[in-house]
Amino acid sequence: MARILIIDDDHLMCDTMTRLVRRNGHDPLSAVTLRDGLALAAAHPFDVIFLDVRLPDGNGLETLPGIEKLPSAPEVIIMTGFGDPNGAELAIKSGAWDYIEKSASVKEITLSLERALQYRLQKSAVARTRKVSALKRPRIIGSSPALGACLDLVAQAAESDISVFITGETGTGKELFARAVHENSRRSRGNFVVVDCTALPETLVESLLFGHEKGSFTGAEKASDGLVRQAHGGTLFLDEVGELPLTLQKAFLRVLQEHRFRPLGGNREIESDFRLVAATNRNLDRMIEQGQFREDLLFRLKSFVIALPPLRNRVEDLQDLARHYADRFCERYGLAPKGFSPEFIRHLRDYSWPGNVREFVHAMERVLTAARFEPTLFTKHLPVEIRVEVARAAVEHEPAFGMVPGGSVIDQLPTLNDYREAVYHDAEKSYLCDLLAAADRNICKACRISGLSQSRLYALLKKHGITRRP
Question: DSSP secondary-structure letter at 269?
Fold first, then answer.
């Protein structure tokens, strides 16, 4: 028997879901506020949580990272009366098991619950039999949920030879994660060969990648293995793969498919058993639309995707990063260990870090240079551009709604579509109020009059904030 938590501010919905869960042989508990629900989730181990989105004291979607860190790590099924594609995307990306509307049938809700429980049982069985080993993660610093999710993907990818595609802004550490995939895989004793696609000379690119035979071109005084051959038995890392010349992409696609290629000037094909990891900070889908990248090659690259978060989305890691690099630079330059003032750490967290970890490392080296013989680091030691941005952000305010800088009111009609939606919304709410009055606030009677199902009527009442009580 599984333990199920229902968090929904609609008492009727909680009662309905409680009966459904109990009818399926499980043990339900419910809460009508986010605060009470999260308190229950922290106090008791649950297998599945049914979570509403719009609650009186918060948004359910925003709590998903915290729920994921609970000791019981329950599966979360988002239930909402407002179908929102963006909300569905956010829920799935945040780790929710499913995202369903309250108007869904009992069969659909039950199926989602049972599938979540089946998955949970299967995952537990695998965890009990699987040999646990520590993940090698040199120079990947931090313990934030965002970073932890990426490291979980590294561990998954390392267990197979699947091609890995790492995305992220400049400076997020794509090569470090590529190396982590390699060093935790069965190929860790083989070569990790880096191909910097931004630095491939167009005239020698085929020779560098595929090698050449002696005399195949002017200056080829002896045969040479290319980078693809050097990766035999190991990992080939294509850094900034979006810069790979279009003329070479077709040839490289065949190498990925067959793991065979012909060196420049050669008369036979050579085999290379390599594992591919590629990385980019560019939008390759947009490049495909512009005719700058092959769609079939992207399909091959994106077998397993690891999307690295920017540093501004993992501020929990900044103090650990500061400690690591301060100690590292102190050791390098023969300096005494440094302490941090609270304001120093606060400034690190308030800055946006557009260059991500790479910018952070350079900034910390500048800080240690500025404070060589001082025992504590203060905001004064930070680079001027960081202090300026933080100071500006602290004093800037958005202009008041409806005002322009000169102080005049913007007199603007809504669009026709917005106006139509507002009228429709008001008419729908008015109808529902009249419906409940005509039905003496009896839901079954209201359903017969309106032709709506109970679940749909509940969803509409929730949408408009209408309760059964007068």
Answer: -
